[in-house]
């Protein structure tokens, strides 16, 4: 039987062929990616670059600890020196060990500095000039410990003496060669009608003056504080006159140039302790007086704290090494030349930089 195509079949075959042709004409599908595409680095065009992170800094290095050598200090029987004895923490708080010797006079202190027995000494204006005369170009002033109304002439409480004119021909005690002698000589020069030969002078250590006055072996004595205040407090004497208007009479801290050049740190800390001492006197004279009195007692002197308090409120204990002090020192040197005690005015050397550095040290604590 002959096969015949029917219309339905023809239509089906036609559709099937058309579908196959369309499928074959479509593009092949892209294969699935097997790896992430490489990132593209995009450079900004307008936005500013981010600031670079600051470089890390090293931790600050600690200041090296300075080993300070002990200082040998030649002091005197002064009110503030007793305070230093009574408050040793003033030196230790400054990080310094101090061998503190109290001499009876600046003459002894000068001899100790010249011989090398002490590193720093304290001396009145006249004895500081004498030190420069003895050691030309070898001494330097580094500070001041007191100035002003430091010297007084005392008589017994029941005495009728009221002036030096009343004492003519009498026995008068004084430590020869000290600032006490100089200030009396300057007073005589000022008034013009009193001579050194008008009196019988007894050379006494300052610590023996009160006993000599009490015993009657002398009619008066001239000394520096605290001896006058002690005599008053004990009822052993009364002030006949004082000399604050005659001369400034500063008391100075001296050392050798050699020591100053090789021990700057020690000097700075030493002066820092003195600054603390001066501040204690200024801010609390009562406590300062009590400590000084205790120290004086330990040294064998009976002193009422009220005597020290009187001194601490009357005398200037500032350390300032200023033009006024240097001018007073020059004036003293000229006076010593006029009296023949020295041949010529020595070249004075001072350096305030140690004190300025000490102030910064104290302020930085």
From TrEMBL:
It holds the Pfam family NMT1. It comes from the Bacteria. InterPro entries: SsuA/THI5. Residues 47-61 have a biased composition (Low complexity). Residues 33-61 are annotated as: Disordered. Keywords: Signal. Residues 91-287 form the SsuA/THI5-like domain. Residues 1-24 form the signal peptide. This is ABC-type nitrate/sulfonate/bicarbonate transport system, periplasmic component.
